[in-house]
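Q: Structure tokens for this one, please.
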Amino acid sequence: MKVVISGGGMVGMTLGRLLQMRGMEPVIIERMPAGAYIPRGYMLGFQGYPPLEEIGVLDGVRKQGWDIAPRPDGSAVAVCVEVGKLLSALAEGLPIVHEHVVSDLVRDAGGRVVGVVATSDDGSTTTYDADLVVACDGVGSRVRGMAGLEVKIEPLAEASLTWMSPEPGGVSFAMSYLTDGSHIGTLGWPQGSAGWRTCEKVGEEAALAPGLDAIKEMWIRLLPESEKGISALTSLDQVQYREPQLLSAPEWWRPGVLIIGDSAHFFGPETGVSSGLGLGDAHALAEAIRQNPDDADAACRSYVTWRAPVIRPYEAMDPGRQRMVLAGGQQARPEERWPPGE
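A: Here is the predicted structure, written as tokens:
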């Protein structure tokens, strides 16, 4: 089967490696230059372990990070690692068409997608034939839109405040729920740390107006485990305000096109499962293609049959959608609110 993968990030490269192991040579198209990525910490959940173990990179990646909730048998619920460690391990020996984007889908007379047009940074184009085009190009997926696959986007009721620090911080993971059911947390890895908390939707200017010192004081008071990491912040530019959204797709495929990973589902920050489930998507799809090497539609049907019972419950139970609140709708204590009240 000729497979074109749009998006050479974590999920796209995992799918490419798994298909290579099954005797195929997919075309992977990635808009970023080779080796380019945004340095950050990454929480690899257990949902992503099986495909990385099959590829042979899990142990090496885990050794370069910090275990989260290690178990007596030596396993861990998750691993926090600098994302480049995983990306470089996945990219090794994998041919990728860098600095190109899928700019159009090629259809036959019946409307089935049978290829893609890839456009480079200089405007030149190349056409690739495909029995199946797989969109791994993120929440804003161009391929998904061109294929006519609709998504449901639900803004969360809360905003989030996040920071990233060059100081490792000393703990791989810590999180605490506040009195109104909102949460605050921190991640740490050998090269840095990060933190997040939910807050009211007040806009970036108002959320950052109290200043860096006030943000540090609040974080340390509510989550003492974050002190070492957040104390190393030197600029308000290291703090960001966001208004997250959940994304789900009622349908994941049309003849010739399938969406997986963040292109198909994106969860709230509280769950920590988005990328792990995306890696699981790649694993399931590679096996569905192996079992149906001459029939892309059959492979997609098998994929949906296997993955829907995994993904749909996560979508339905995302805490961002069904916020945990105490009986009576208790409000956050004044010292927990952000921005601080008058």
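A few notes: The mean pLDDT is 93. The chain is about 30% helix and 30% strand.
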